[in-house]
Design brief:
Elements lengths: L8 E3 L6 E3 L2 E3 L12 H13 L4 E3 L7 H8 L8 E6 L4 H15 L4 E6 L7 H15 L4 E7 L3 H7 L3 H9 L1 E4 L1
Helix pairs in contact: 1-2, 3-4
Length: about 180
């Protein structure tokens, strides 16, 4: 059997993170209808790592944190970029979620922590939460912060915040 070529690795903006061009979204690993055990999910993620996928996207509401934690027993933590997210509405809630994610993922740090599914109803509050999370970023517990949205309106609105623009151009990752 012919060996698969490794995926190319690229810099993620100027976060200092280097990610594979292809990431692994873990939504399906946590799906109750698929009944994938954390052990099996960990094997799947470890296999993706062997193929060059070092970027794993998860969320506390996907139910896949245990699968990622299982995979981290099989691969060097320093070689994998983990993105997780939470729909927290306050800085306190986001910090609590971050601590919970660290525990569930069995890791000392999160590479990318995103405010999840931001919509136009709370973009203003999200701005404040991201500023608070940027302070947490300086501790090293999280390397980059940002937001995920399904709304072009939110992207346009968020781009008008001067503080966010400065953060985005320096160390903020935005997920579509």
């Amino acid at each position: 059997m012919k060996e698969m070529p490794k995926l190319s690795i690229v810099a993620l903006c100027d976060t200092g993170l280097k990610v594979s061009r292809l990431g692994f979204g873990t939504f399906d690993l946590g799906s109750p209808s698929l009944n994938i055990s954390p052990e099996e999910g960990g094997r799947i993620l470890a296999e993706s790592y062997k193929l060059g996928v070092n970027f794993w996207d998860t969320s506390d509401d996907y139910g896949s944190h245990p699968h990622v934690a299982s995979a981290l027993k099989r691969v060097p933590r320093k070689d994998v970029i983990i993105s997780t997210k939470k729909g927290a509405k306050t800085g306190k809630e986001a910090r609590k979620s971050l601590r919970s994610s660290l525990r569930e993922l069995s890791t000392d740090y999160i590479d990318i922590f995103l405010m999840h599914c931001v919509d136009s109803d709370w973009i203003g509050e999200c701005h404040r939460v991201l500023r608070e999370l940027n302070d947490v970023r300086t501790t090293g517990i999280v390397k980059a912060v940002g937001l995920s949205t399904h709304s072009v309106t939110v992207v346009k609105e968020a781009s008008q915040f001067e503080e966010l623009y400065r953060l985005w151009t320096r160390n903020l990752y935005m997920s579509p």
